[in-house]
Amino acid sequence: MKEKNRLYWQFAGSCFLLIFVFFTYVVKFYPQSQWLQRLDLWGQSLQQIITPQKTAFFQYLTQLGSGQNIFIFTIIVLCLLILFRQKIAALWFSFMMIMGPILGTSIIKQVVQRPRPQGIQLVHETTFSFPSGHTIAAICCYGTTLLIIHVLVKNRLLKAIMSLFFAFIIIGILMSRIYLGAHFLSDVIGGASFSLGILCLTYPIYRQKQFIYDFKGKRRK
């Protein structure tokens, strides 16, 4: 990765983490802020038209971000990466899954302790609301997979199809959390900014390590 591109990724990651810190501070200490309530109220516009078909669709999507399905997908991805001897990608993927869904979600939720929305709830949740754990899991899991595909897959058409597929899943999961009444919009923004921050900051490191690993592999041949 060129130095200029690396700086772009790191700048983007820093901006995302600043957004996360800002939202965490406001939600924790100023939850009644007028602009925050307006933002969350605007997000609830996704619930203006609720139909059985939409509910079933979003319930299916939100399950793709559940702990059980994320765990299964993680095991499959790691097995494939190890099978194809992509050690660096496997290590980066493992790091993202530990930092995001495991450490990030559980610790931050306990620190902020924001109650769930009190409006229409189409799914039952028992944990705290901020940040959205499904959002963090989706971006850390499917977003990391998307970037690994971008690096390792050489076929452009296959790369484009798989990238669009995982991007659709991520966006769908984010929207589902609001539609189903599981989260405020600010919860989703908090989860997205946290996971995107880590993703953007660590992606250049992965690219550098992957380049060195591939170069050494070619020299051995």
Give a topology summary.
Elements: H1 3-29, H2 34-43, H3 52-63, H4 67-83, H5 87-112, H6 133-152, H7 156-179, H8 185-220
Helix pairs in contact: 1-8, 3-7, 4-5, 4-6, 5-6, 5-8, 6-7, 6-8
Would you write up a description of this structure?
The structure is a single chain. By secondary structure, this protein is mostly helical. The protein has one domain. It has eight helices and no strands. It has helices at 3-29, 34-43, 52-63, 67-83, 87-112, 133-152, 156-179, 185-220. Helix 6 runs parallel beside helix 8 (185-220). The longest helix has 36 residues, at 185-220. The protein is globular and about 55 Å long. The two termini are 23 Å apart. 36% of the residues are buried. The model has no long low-confidence stretch (mean pLDDT 92). The chain crosses the membrane at residues 7-27, 66-84, 91-112, 132-153, 160-182, 188-206. Residues 86-203 form the Phosphatidic acid phosphatase type 2/haloperoxidase domain. This is Phosphatidic acid phosphatase type 2/haloperoxidase domain-containing protein. Keywords: Membrane, Transmembrane, Transmembrane helix. InterPro entries: PAP2/HPO, PAP2/HPO_sf.
